[in-house]
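[Discussion] Sanity-checking designs against the backbone

I'm trying to build intuition for which residues belong where. Below is a C-alpha cell string of 104 positions. I'd appreciate it if someone posts a full sequence so I can compare it with mine line by line.
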C-alpha cells in the first residue's frame, strides 16, 4: 500500500511494524494489528483503527467530527464485510479522496 499510495500511507516501523499511518492534511488514521495464536496454533488477526485529530482543526474538520469519531466502528464493519485487504484499501482510497476534495 505504501508504494501504491505514497502520498497517504506510511509505515513508521517499516515492514515489521504493527501499524500503518494514513495521512490526510487535517487528520491521521492509524491501522493497528495484532496476531493472536491459540494453543492449537490457529492464528487470528485483530485490527483496529485509531484517529489522530489536531486539537484545533479547521471549520470543515469540526463539521465532520462525528464522521471521524465513528471511523473505528465503520472500519470494523468493513473488515467483516470486505475482509482485511479490501477494508484497508477502501479506507486508503477514501482518505485520499477526502484530501484531494478538501472534504476534511
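Best answer:
Here's mine. Compare freely.
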Amino acid at each position: 500500500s505504501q508504494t501504491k499510495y505514497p502520498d497517504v500511507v506510511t509505515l513508521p516501523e517499516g515492514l515489521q511494524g504493527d501499524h500503518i499511518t494514513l495521512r490526510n492534511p487535517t487528520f491521521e488514521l492509524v491501522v493497528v494489528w495484532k496476531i493472536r495464536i491459540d494453543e492449537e496454533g490457529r492464528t487470528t488477526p485483530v485490527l483496529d483503527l485509531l484517529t489522530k485529530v489536531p486539537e484545533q482543526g479547521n471549520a470543515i474538520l469540526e463539521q465532520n467530527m462525528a464522521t471521524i469519531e465513528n471511523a473505528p466502528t465503520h472500519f470494523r464493519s468493513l473488515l467483516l464485510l470486505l475482509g482485511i485487504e479490501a477494508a484497508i484499501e477502501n479506507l486508503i482510497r477514501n482518505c485520499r479522496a477526502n484530501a484531494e476534495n478538501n472534504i476534511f
